[in-house]
Structure prediction request, 387 residues.
Amino acid sequence: MRIFALGGAGKICREAAYDLVCFGTFDQLTIGDFNIEAAKSTAEWLNNSKVDYAFIDVTDKPGSIALLSKYDLVIDGTTISLNGDSTECIAYAGCHGINLNGFGEEYKFDEIFKANGKIMVPGFGMTPGTTNMMAVFACDQMEKVNTVRVSHGAYRPIAFSGSITETTIYEYDPKLPGRTVFENGEFIQVPPFARPRVIELPLPYGKSIEYIIPHSETFTLAKYLKNKNVDLIEVRGTWPQENMELIKALYNYGFLNNQKITLNGCEFGIMEAIGEYLQRSPKGKETELFGYSLHVEVEGIKNGQLVRQTLTHTHPSSDGTIPEWAGLRAYTRNVGIPMSIAAQLILQGKYTGSGALYPEFVFNPGHVFSELAKRDIFIHTIEEIIN
Prediction:
């Protein structure tokens, strides 16, 4: 099997590639990136004779399609803004595909993937991805699902890479139509910082106030649960407290509207300038606590009783006692490893369907959880009867 890591030199996708080297079976793994020097450096870091590197620019559709057509599967670590281009290339190249973001551009290529007998799974990292599996695990046990509340804490610097900066600006865009909740059969758009809720994450993260965010789980779970009469689906998230304070201040002062301004004859969006500053500032690359924490709460009827299942996840500490999880890698490994696991399940034939499909319809949560456990990432479940 031949695998292409698209955007493979990025800090998250390189972790997926690292996991493939540690746990996967393949004939060739190519680190493909627009930055050829970074791709070469990543391939050398992986230190495996089956790993090589290549230049790729997904805006060059013919060239990218020709290159990718030599591969069986593409793990796509490109940014949200490139996912339409990257998925088009993967589709026409006749490969299986999987990416991290899942914001919707991928589904318009559904028929091409179907015609090729291939599958594309948009959005399979920690969230979306692992959270979808946690929700499916709980919901499948219930005759009726009342509420699903997906929450996470992403503990990483606000601008350690260009793609993370783009994600920050995207998720808190006040005009973003995709920031919704699913309530009483309808998708309801909400503003940034809507519906605050205190979520208690496993230590060392603890309690924090989380707000509605524009993640694909709202849409994909609504589709998956259409026969269970779900009343409410909400997805919340948080970053480190000082990051949230900064974003809240930018929102209060109108910066998140990304108004175009002209300075010294140059026009740019104000948030693009702030993002560029943060990427160049030491403060934009620092935080006290690194890692990821998931919290999925599902209430419904199980065996005739009203129950609540709360699922959380834990992972090795970022304190340096385990070098491979030290510092920022406690965050990037959490996101990259699930994409690698999903890729391996596809290559092993442990998936369902063809076309561009929501994660809920593709994978067995048990397969995903058991693979995560091999990496010391554990899913925990508590069930309570609600009187």
